[in-house]
Write a structure and sequence with these properties.
mainly beta, about 350 residues, Porin, 18 strands, 14-stranded antiparallel barrel, two-stranded antiparallel ribbon
């Protein structure tokens, strides 16, 4: 429509700042001065419900918080989430983790779309519609030591076990001194703003240590990469460092299982903050989750959610389990966000 960059630039800046303010990224240390801030918005349903205290937990969503944890995933799995975000913004996410004899390979994708945005010129006259698009694609490779290829498709008894009922546990002897894993993700971060585009490569790296008694430690560095360029401006990615611990507690016959987790995290433009999460699993069918994020946001720091297992519907088929997950975060006057996800294992 022949609009100049100067008429669109205020619109783009307003939108980016709105997304940043609605996300979990307000704090000291020059907040908001990074690019690709959509990477800070929690997307996967299960970690979101736990307040994002997921660095020391293991699942297909680990690629978002600690790629090293994928090395301890004994089976293949898929995770997907749809997020109804604020102001008509939508977010999609999918992760695939495949266990092989040589380790675990993961593929992760996330996208955030603004939908149509009315554009105005310098005279405050409507000149049409515009939109924005934000995407990330990542490839993860992870491996554990010691490694037991014969255990593919099974659950290691040293690891905090998931709620799946049809994934068999390892029953023969395994050394129980420790488990260690490490992994890395190479990813492409891409954004489009009113016909302009920018893309940058980034790297994530992480490691996990599991001690006897299912005490799990995780550490990671995320979004380590170059700068994102728009017009003549450049901004670094929102690099972050995370450290986490997790432990489970069980009642008689595992009727109820409590899993607690805690993270310390820091973005390059915020102070250090803490997050906590707890999951209560009833009969490996219903999981209730709650979390707390110490990083300031535009709304509540608390998160809640649940999971429902439907393993019985996979009997006799290729899949060994299906679960539906839900997470809820309120952003006060901006409204509530609802994430609906699904996981499948084989």
């Amino acid at each position: 429509m022949g609009r100049s960059p100067y008429t669109v630039r205020p619109l783009l800046l307003s939108y980016v700042l709105a997304v940043w303010a609605a996300g979990p990224v307000m704090g000291a240390g020059s907040p908001g001065l990074t690019g690709a801030n959509f990477l800070k918005i929690p997307v996967a349903a299960l970690p979101t419900a736990l307040g994002e205290s997921y660095t020391a937990l293991i699942g297909p969503d680990s690629a978002l918080y600690n790629p090293g944890a994928l090395g301890l995933l004994g089976y293949s799995s898929f995770s997907g989430t749809h997020n109804t975000y604020v102001a008509g913004i939508t977010q999609e996410y999918a992760a695939l983790a495949v266990r092989t004899r040589y380790g675990t390979a993961g593929l992760t994708f996330s996208s955030l779309s603004s939908g149509k945005i009315t554009a105005y010129d310098s005279e405050d006259q409507t000149i049409g519609d515009t939109d924005t698009s934000h995407r990330m694609v990542g490839l993860t490779i992870a491996r554990s030591w010691p490694d037991f290829p014969e255990d593919i498709g099974m659950i290691d008894p040293m690891i905090i076990p998931p709620s799946w009922t049809r994934v068999p546990p390892v029953i023969d002897y395994r050394p129980k001194a420790y488990r260690f894993s490490a992994g890395a993700t190479i990813k492409r971060v891409m954004e489009e703003l009113d016909g302009l585009s920018s893309a940058v490569w980034a790297v994530d790296a992480g490691a996990m240590l599991v001690l006897p008694g299912r005490v799990q430690f995780g550490a990671s560095a995320l979004n380590v990469g170059g700068e994102q360029d728009f017009y003549s401006e450049a901004a670094p990615l929102p690099r972050s460092y995370r450290f986490g611990i997790a432990k489970d507690f069980r009642t008689v016959k595992d009727l109820i299982v409590f899993t607690v987790s805690a993270d310390a995290a820091k973005y390059s433009d915020t102070d250090l903050y803490y997050s906590f999460g707890v999951e209560t699993d009833f009969l490996r069918f219903l999981q209730l989750r709650a979390g707390y994020r110490g990083l300031e946001s535009a709304g509540s720091r608390g998160t809640v959610g649940f999971g429902l297992n439907f393993d019985k519907f996979t009997e006799g088929g290729f899949l060994k389990g299906i679960r539906v997950d839900y997470a809820h975060i309120s952003y006060g006057p901006l409204g509530a966000t609802n994430r609906i996800g699904m996981q499948a294992v084989w």
